[in-house]
Amino acid sequence: MFFDSRIFRRWYVGMMVVWVALFATFNSIPFLVEHWYYPAIMVLGAFVAGLTPEGGGAVAFPVLSVFLDIDRGMARDFSLMIQSVGMTSASIWILSRKQNRLASYAPVLWFVPVAFLGFVFGMNVMQGIPVYIIQALFLSLIMTFALAYIASKHRGHRDRLPNTGRLDKLMLAAILFAGGVCASLFGTGADIVLYTLLVTRFRMDEKIATHQSIMVMAAISVLGYGYRAFWDQGITDYQVRTWLCAYPVVLLMAPLGSYVLSKLKIDWMLRGIVALNIFQMVYFNLKAPTPEKIACSLGFSAVLFSLFWLTLAHMARSRQQGFGEATTTPVEPAE
């Protein structure tokens, strides 16, 4: 059952008490009614965050930045702020499940610092990129990943990260660093790039890889929120109030997505996500179209889809070859 873990029940009740206290202090019912679209957006966004390797920002960032014309930096911050609750809640639910082996998630302890270094680098170096390029890159990233993810036979089988050589560790560190940079631009993305590497290069089970990507993005969201609030001092009262509007929604919906992931095949949900991502990309390019926007969208999509497809297809071929060799190996007669 969803609430059968005592640890998660205590977490959920405690966080709801915190929300009531914060809402009573900093927010109001009229503000919530006026900004109803924030929790509405996160009903789907948080569910996606717990169900798939795409964080809640994969819904929140494009809806706020592209559809509602909210400042790109504010959309990124909202994604980080809301994931700090939702994806952390999903992580607590995952870790409190008795059937999940905690040893499978130990690598997250070193994944997070590397990804956070990328986040800090991105915050200090990459913020001058034009907004339309960032929007085109993000929409291309989530659309092409979802297309390649659902179209390929990418299922891994390992429940733990294998012992890796120096080259693999450097590759993993580079991907984590790049994921942190993505989070500094979009508020999400580290989970997508990490998941892709785990299931392709390291042949990890897709659910374990999804869990690890959720935990990493949860930690980066908490650290990123703290960085923006205390180091940059860039979080406004308005942002805190919009965060509080969606807080209870993501606290429940993200772990609920993880629960559904543990029970069901999710291909139907993934098809819906693909359709949503394609619609977002089409809307972005039809709204005030320019040659630069269209060129960036097409270019990023072509490159990213090729990368995702080739890596996932390579994994499928390798597994098929390995299976074929195993089934054709002659059996020595017993003496």
Percent helix among the residues? over 70%
Measured distance between first and last alpha carbons: 52 Å
Radius of gyration: 20 Å
List SSEs in N-to-C order.
HHHHHHHHHHHHH
Low-confidence stretches: 325-335
| Portion in strands | under 5%
Q: Which structural class do you get from the secondary structure elements?
A: mainly alpha
Number of domains: 1
Please give the number of β-strands. 0
Number of distinct helices: 13
- The best one-word shape is globular
Biggest sheet overview = none
Protein name: Probable membrane transporter protein
Transmembrane segments: 12-33, 39-66, 102-122, 129-150, 170-197, 209-228, 240-261, 298-316
Family: Belongs to the 4-toluene sulfonate uptake permease (TSUP) (TC 2.A.102) family.
Keywords: Cell membrane, Membrane, Transmembrane, Transmembrane helix
Brief synopsis:
This protein is mainly α. Helix content is 78%, strand content 0%. Helix 4 (57-67) packs across helix 7.
Describe the structure.
There is one protein chain. With 335 residues, the chain is mostly helical. The protein has one domain (6-319). It is built from 13 helices and no strands. The chain has helices spanning 6-26, 29-34, 37-51, 57-67, 72-96, 108-125, 131-151, 166-186, 190-200, 206-231, 237-263, 267-286, 291-328. The chain is globular, with a radius of gyration of 20 Å. It starts with 5 loop residues before the first helix and ends in a 7-residue tail after the last helix. Residues 325-335 have low confidence and may be disordered.
